[in-house]
Amino acid sequence: MPRGKAEVAVIGGGPAGVAAAYQLSREGIKDVILIEEGDIGGLIYYANKIENIPGFFNSEGRDIVDELKRFIENRNIPVIQGPVTSISKSEDLFDLKLKDSTLKCKYLVVATGTVPKTLDIEGEVCEPPWRDYHGEKVLIVGGGDAAYDYALRIDRLGGKVTILSRSEPCAVESLLKQVRETGIKEKTGEIVSWDKEGEQHILKTANNTYTCDTLVTAVGRTPNIPAIEFGYQEVEFPSGETSVRRLFIVGSAVLGKYRQLPLCWGMGIAAGMKIKKLIENSK
């Protein structure tokens, strides 16, 4: 197709998006473009250890990111860096509005994942970086998988970690066990106020006061789907095919509580296979 157009565009460079682009290339679809606002890999980069993928047991999230990049490089899939601000349709093509241009495509896979919910506390960190935390008191607010996974990673990187959850934690049993074996402190209580003294955060619950150098919040995530200027419904799993012809939405953006890397990868593969079939049937 001419410059500014692609047969298939994939928005999102996390596991679902990489899987879709890779599968399309394997299927012989040459005109595939991957669009990613940040770095290839997405949220998985921040994972402490991966425990549910054969061949990668106990690999760090950043190691998985390196593998995802190799998938893209292996097939020479072109990557456009930057956000997609809106999606519309014209003349039976999708119009993707980028920062400085518009890209048209015939088939569209949206794999844009999720964004973190916040507590609107000044200085909170929702996606803690890989760095040296030695000597830092770190308070992690949240009781799910992400909170406990972050706690294990930051503890491993030298931080003095406390987890604060509103009620009983809901992380998977293996994470709970690992945290308790390390001796990371677990507390419960709902934050009623917060303040800062210099670089330190001060958070209060009904019964306790917590002071920390770094405040990490892991209190849930919401779908991160670009503004789509037409209605759609998810109608098929695992491919993510929607009620809008040739539009697919895959991965964490539609998996809800089932947001797991293997499921995201599987949806991307299924979308690629379904698009290949649709292209063959249209000829």
Folded structure, characterized:
It is a single chain. The protein is built from six helices and 17 strands. By secondary structure, the protein is of the alpha/beta class. It has two domains: 173 residues, FAD/NAD(P)-binding domain; 100 residues, FAD/NAD(P)-binding domain (3-Layer(bba) Sandwich). Strands 1, 2, 3, 4, 5, 6, 16 and 17 form an eight-stranded mixed beta sheet that branches. A four-stranded parallel beta sheet has the order 10-9-8-14, covered by helices on one side. α3 packs parallel to α4. The longest helix has 22 residues. It starts with a strand and ends with a helix. The mean pLDDT is 95.
Question: What's the SSE pattern?
Answer: EHEHEEEEEEHEHEEEEEEEEHH
How far the N terminus sits from the C terminus, by CA atoms, comes to 15 Å
Radius of gyration: 21 Å
CATH class of the largest domain: Alpha Beta
Largest sheet: 8 strands, mixed
Shape: elongated
Secondary structure tally, helices: 6
Helix fraction by DSSP (H/I, runs of at least 4):
25-40%
* CATH H-tier superfamily of the largest domain: FAD/NAD(P)-binding domain
What does the average pLDDT come to?
Answer: 95
CATH architectural group of the largest domain: 3-Layer(bba) Sandwich
Could you give the count of β-strands? 17
Report low-confidence residues grouped into runs of 5 or more: none
Beta percentage is 25-35%
